[in-house]
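Good morning N.,

You mentioned wanting to compare the apo and holo forms, so I went ahead and generated the holo version with NAP. This is what I fed in:
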Amino acid sequence: MSDQPVALITGASSGIGLATARTFLENGVHVVGVARNPAKLDNAAEGLTGLPARFVPVALDVTANDSPARAVAQAIDTFGRLDHLVNNAGIGSPAPVHETDDDTLDQFLNIMLRAPFRLAREALTAFGDTATIVNVSSTYAILGGLRGGAYSAAKAGLNGLTLHMAAQYGAAGIRSNAVAPGVIPTPMTEHRLEAEAFRRMNHDMTPAARWGQVEDVAQAIWFLSSPASGWINGQVLAVDGGWTATKYLSEEALTAPRESTSPDWTHSGRPPKRD
Ligand code: NAP
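and this is what came out, ligand included:
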């Protein structure tokens, strides 16, 4: 069995998950990194060499029925132990409820609620005496969030799962927490950040002097996984530059001429009424 602890991190090939994998490796934690696309994973693995711990890529879709067993088996077969689970894999670009069809609803719930549930259930069978689970939620599960739809629903479900597991398994040495990032530039958000309205919605309502970075979230996940947070269990930590903490609106937003905002800012996002 490895002397060093081991983490299973989903969505480890990109964005927040990749930064989290790097942070764990830098802190001497081996990482079993899960994502769908093998080429992207291999690319990530190449950039994660020479650190104090090993990155083991596992290409699988977290929604497949056998994925939790395969991912956990990889950790046990390679290192003989599992100490941390980070449920991070996710997709973006949600739509409001009235524009969300059943397939999209199922897809969002499968990736960001059913899969984390099932991965946690499997990890619980492999953890040692102490362990941590960190679920990557979103500010869209704390605030209403325009166009949140299935995404908000899945992430809010994940927050509920986090609280339940904290209560259920805390006495057994397993802590469960969640991070709720605000908008962070990653491949998931880069196309949305091209839209002026989306950029302003985040910039003008965030009382911070800069954009959030993947490392901001990775450090929060690492903290909640490390002994430094040993007395923290069942919390949803917003990592959002203060977006959810306040009704803040920047001077620029308050003084912007109305015509400079996009039509997205009107209250037109409602389906047509029945006759
Ligand atoms: P990203 O850069 O697009 O990375 C997403 C990762 O998830 C990729 O490694 C992707 O790998 C993997 N993935 C997606 N579907 C998968 C599946 N079915 N099975 C296995 N792996 C899958 O996105 P990100 O911005 O870092 O987002 C990471 C998490 O943070 C998500 O849960 C997201 O909801 C949450 N979050 C992000 C933001 C933000 O502003 N970026 C804000 C709040 C919350 P493949 O491409 O190979 O599938």
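Residues 102-124 form the longest helix (23 residues).

Happy to go through it together on a call whenever suits you.

Best,
F.
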